[in-house]
Specification:
about 240 residues, alpha+beta, 3 helices, about 15% helix
């Protein structure tokens, strides 16, 4: 159950603003509007020592899937009450939404290529953190390796027949990335098998493209061998 700070008695939440719709049942603490036609949201809230407004790109998860639209520490709130402070944050949210339609805004660090999954796969997870980003694709037409192989699943030869997930990890600053097969979405390093030697510091967009090419090479008998440099190496 989310917590919503009380508002001043004479104020009401705007239900719709420029393609954003207020969601009173949203799980996030504070007051949240969601995009009608896009996976985006905006939340205004009163924290312990400040009033804040954040915009979220909900296509991704993690602590860094948002940007701060406005923030004011207690020292700058001019002795506002908690009700007045959260209303200040709401006004900032409304002003920002009026100038940003949900279909026209995305997080500046989102990599659009991530949403073009390899053939036969769908995006299972896109996790954004301050130091790194993680992408996991799930086979759409395969059984979970857990069901197929039981306790012997990690002893099987890693392939698209025995591993349901592709796991990509990229460090934000260096761009160094790894591309692996995994038996489940939250596999540990020792449970994954690298499948492609990626170029040094290639970045997430290139890693995604090479994952797509590797899958085509493995599944399309007419493939020209673009994935020829792929190799499976236990990590």
């Amino acid at each position: 159950m989310s917590y919503k700070q009380p508002l001043p008695d004479d104020k009401q939440i705007p239900e719709r603003v420029n393609g954003w719709v207020y969601d009173p049942d949203h799980s996030r603490n504070g007051y949240t509007w969601v995009g009608e036609d896009a996976e985006r949201s905006v939340t205004a809230f009163r924290s312990v020592a400040s009033a804040r407004t954040k915009a979220y790109d909900d296509r991704a998860s993690g602590f860094e899937n948002n940007v701060e639209v406005a923030a004011k520490p207690d020292a700058e709130l001019n002795y506002m009450s908690d009700k007045e402070a959260v209303w200040w944050a709401i006004k900032q949210a409304v002003d920002w939404m009026e100038h940003h339609h949900p279909t026209e805004w995305e997080h500046p660090d989102i990599v659009p290529a991530v949403f073009d999954a390899p053939p036969g796969f769908e995006l299972a997870k896109y996790w954004m953190e301050s130091r790194d980003q993680t992408v996991v694709y799930r086979q759409t037409n395969g059984k979970d390796a857990l069901d197929m192989l039981g306790d012997d699943r990690l002893d099987s030869e890693p392939s698209l027949d025995t591993r349901k997930y592709i796991h990509i990890h990229t460090w934000n600053v260096s761009g160094k990335s790894t591309l692996s097969l995994a038996p489940w979405p939250r596999a540990h390093d020792h449970e994954m098998d690298e499948i492609v030697d990626l170029p040094e510091d290639c970045g997430l967009a290139t890693a995604v493209q090479m994952a797509r090419e590797w899958v085509v090479d493995q599944t399309d008998p007419l493939s020209s061998g673009r994935g020829g440099e792929a190799s499976v190496t236990a990590r």
